[in-house]
């Protein structure tokens, strides 16, 4: 019986030790981001905007989205990226010296398909930076 309890205790200790890296990664993200929201806004039968709104824990050197990937699906389950917007090509995705930023990109899709956006939020302060990937709900055109 003692052997059984020792094994159970050893398994519990190992489980707790393995959980530390996941917690550490989460803590690093919270060093930069306070909150965010991401969503799609339908503008016409086939056109929509992919929006993000991000708040940092303090003023950042750079804040916004490093990229927005528009994904398409015929069944709402299997997704394919059809367009990528990057901060290098779309300067409205980032803002400098701010603690909050909101922006969007516009995309024209095809009627009958589902769409969603994979938005990678980005914050940089000094020599450190962090990213937080969020997905919007899907939208059928």
Describe the structure.
This protein is an alpha+beta fold and 141 residues long. It folds into 2 domains: 1-30; 33-140, Immunoglobulin-like (Sandwich), CATH 2.60.40. 21% of the residues lie in helices and 57% in strands. Strands 1, 2, 3, 4, 5, 6 and 7 form a 7-stranded antiparallel beta sheet that branches. The longest helix is centred in the N-terminal third of the chain and has 29 residues, at 2-30.
Task: Lay out the secondary structure.
Layout: H1 2-30, E1 33-42, E2 47-73, E3 80-86, E4 94-108, E5 114-125, E6 128-135, E7 139-140
Antiparallel strand pairs: 1-2, 2-3, 2-4, 2-5, 5-6, 5-7
CATH architecture of the largest domain: Sandwich
Mean pLDDT over the residues: 86
Largest sheet: 7 strands, antiparallel
> Which spans have pLDDT < 50 for at least 5 consecutive residues?
8-13, 15-28
How large is the count of helical segments?
Answer: 1
Please report the total strand number as a whole number: 7
- What is the radius of gyration computed over CA atoms, rounded to a whole number of angstroms? 20 Å
Which percent range fits the helix content?
10-25%
What is the N-to-C succession of helices and strands? HEEEEEEE
CATH class group of the largest domain: Mainly Beta
Beta content comes to over 45%
List keywords for this structure.
141 residues; alpha+beta; Immunoglobulin-like; 2 domains; 1 helix; globular
Short characterization:
By secondary structure, this protein is α+β, with helices and mostly antiparallel strands.
């Amino acid at each position: 019986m003692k052997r059984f309890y020792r094994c159970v205790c050893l398994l519990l200790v190992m489980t707790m030790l393995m959980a530390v890296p996941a917690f550490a990664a989460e803590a690093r993200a919270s060093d930069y981001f306070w909150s965010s929201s991401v969503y799609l806004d339908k503008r016409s039968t086939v056109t929509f905007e992919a929006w993000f709104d991000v708040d940092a824990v303090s003023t950042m050197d750079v804040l916004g989205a490093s990229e927005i990937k528009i994904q398409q699906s015929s069944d709402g389950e299997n997704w394919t990226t059809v367009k990528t917007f990057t901060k290098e090509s779309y300067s409205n995705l980032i803002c400098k010296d701010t603690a909050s930023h909101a922006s969007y990109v516009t995309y024209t899709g095809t009627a009958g398909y589902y769409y969603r956006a994979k938005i990678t939020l980005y914050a940089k302060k000094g020599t450190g930076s962090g990213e937080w990937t969020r997905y919007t709900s899907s939208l059928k055109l």
